[in-house]
Amino acid sequence: MIRRLVTTVLAASIVLWPATRSAAADDPPAAVPIPVPTTPAGLTRHSVDFNGKFLRYTATAGRTTLFDKSDKPTAAIFSVSYTLDDEPHATRPVTFLWNGGPGSSTLWLHMGSFGPLRVATNGTGAIVPPAHLVPNDGTLLEATDLVFVDAPGTGYSRLVGTAKKDDFYGIDQDARAFTQFIERWLTEHDRWGSPKFLIGESYGTTRAANVVDRLQGDGVGVNGVVLISSALDLSALDPSLPGDDRSNVAFLPTEAAVAWYHAAPSARSEKLDALLDEVRAFARGPYATALLRGDALDAATRDEIAAKLHRYTGLDTAYIVRANLRIDPSRFEKELERSSGTLLGRLDGRFAGYDTDRNADSPSYDPTLDAGIQDAFVSEFNRYVRDDLGFRDGGRYLPTNYGDIGNAWKLVRDAGDVGLGYVQTPNVLPDLAQALAHNPALRVLSANGYFDLATPFFGTELGLSHLALSPELDSHIRLTYYPSGHMIYLEDESRRKLRADIETFIAGATRH
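^ that's the sequence the OP posted. Answer follows.
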């Protein structure tokens, strides 16, 4: 989930203290340090049937303590590591994975995409209870060891000592924590010689672009970064910013894909790939030009653009004109199937559900998550981590913590962290560009779902095409596409293709 930044400016005041005062009476009480959790790590050995081949591996579920500059503990970060047995660990690739939010644990990537086991779905992403785990034909364990990391304040990761939310809940604060975790993990497991990869999903791509630049600044070479359903310039995806039309251009091809999917087969006059190529050209050309003209746009051009938008999105032409040619994705989710009383999913526009308020202009929920996904993942992981991985912490596992973390999240970049004169906006494209420029061996894979109405694939294309890299570095970025949504791996065919694409990527990025 990507949340808008609300900036509150507080007027400063000067307080004149008396010449003498009682510290005990006037000072705020000192914070009581939160102790570092002492739950022992779970160390277990397993095997799994991966496409007819048994993989034997060791799972380690436990916490890693982070420290401040004074060597005082600040956070206990929970992770689950999978290392393949009978392999030379010191030089075997290791990949660090995380979800986003901000405020999400890494439950979704762990139990849905690349771990050795996954929650079973019906093939398209829906889950029929009761949930259960099956061997994962999408696991990356054959190609790389895996470390699934929960962000501070999510999962079993906790702030400790006298740490405050402000120390972790922000773009740069969060990236510093993950950077320290990776460096400590590499030291504790003697893996500094391993090829290193990062995989982030959604806001996790924001984190990955930031972290890879920080790691390399610390002398930690990274071979590759995988960005799944990217959110690299958050302001470019916000349709509520007045006068900023980038999101309208970015979302249009995804809206066209969703409209194509929901049309009757007889109405699908074009193949999806061919249609999207046409919509991309229209979006970056006539549509962007028309929006740029703003209120000076003439009526004839407005009507011409509206007719094209009607053909691509399926929305009523009069609605499009009333919207001033600007289609808010959340309203699109509600408007496309309004006549039938259904709304579409944000995370995956193929999913549909019924809304109790048929006249509302925006959805009241996301039917993607209502397909049983959230309940199944949470219940199965809680059983799995205790019974199978042997981590028996008495506290609650927090799959999401949007209220506590999202509401406190600092989306403005720290001036001292941005560097090179970058504007303090929620944009990590400069971080990624700098990482690529400073490490010519670094490779980037961007994976995109066609039906993702949260992080549109065309927005990612536009962002990655504006890194101002030298021509010889352009080939270091590869984009792949899948007939799926935000959580690409929930759909069987897409999960298998995503795994194959990442395995090929890892092999190429480790080849000397």
